[in-house]
Structures are given as structure tokens and as C-alpha cells.
Amino acid sequence: MPVQEKETLKARMSNPAMMIPEAMQALMALGASTNKGGVAPTMLELINLRASQINGCSVRVDLHSRNLKKAGETDERICGVAA
């Protein structure tokens, strides 16, 4: 059986926050306002996990999953976010 070469994964799109300087400021302001909105931090982390899944950002999916584990979330709830 021949050895298959691994396909290199490419990002679907460039990171807009790196392409448009004002985008990072807007993202930081959005994050600050959502943290003040009264939603439980664990719920915000679950929301951030789902957004990262939708965006296809594996680095942030890993980060949010780890943060949720540290906060005591169960594997079932973390994995259930994708559903």
C-alpha cells in the first residue's frame, strides 16, 4: 500500500483583525462589554468555544476547551457545544 502524503490545511480566510487595524480594537471592546453584561463566565466561554468552532480556529477551540475544563465543565457539555 503506497504511503499517502498529508494534505496541508489552509485557513479559509485571512484573520481580519490582522488585516484591518481597527478590527482588533472593535473585538477587544466587544469582549469587554460582553464580560460586563451579567452572563456567567462559563457560559461566555461556551459561547466563545462555539464561535471558534464556526470560525475554524483550532487554536482558540483548544484554548476555550482547556479554560472550560479548568472551570470544572464536564466533557459532555464541552463536546456538546458542537452539536
Keywords:
about 80 residues, mainly alpha
Model description:
The protein is an all-alpha fold. Helix content is 64%, strand content 0%. It contains five helices and no strands. Helix 3 (41-55) runs antiparallel to helix 4. It is flat.
Please specify the SSE layout and strand pairing.
Elements: H1 16-19, H2 21-35, H3 41-55, H4 58-70, H5 75-80
Give start-end ranges of low-pLDDT stretches: none
How would you sum up the global shape?
Answer: flat
Question: Helix tally?
Answer: 5
Give the helix/strand class: mainly alpha
CA radius of gyration: 16 Å
- Spell out the helices and strands N to C: HHHHH
- Mean pLDDT across the residues is 86
**What portion of the residues fall into strands of 2 or more residues?**
under 5%
Major beta sheet summary: none
Q: Helix amount, in percent?
A: 55-70%
Q: Distance between termini?
A: 36 Å
Summarize the structure.
The chain is an all-alpha fold and 83 residues long. The protein is 64% helix and 0% strand.
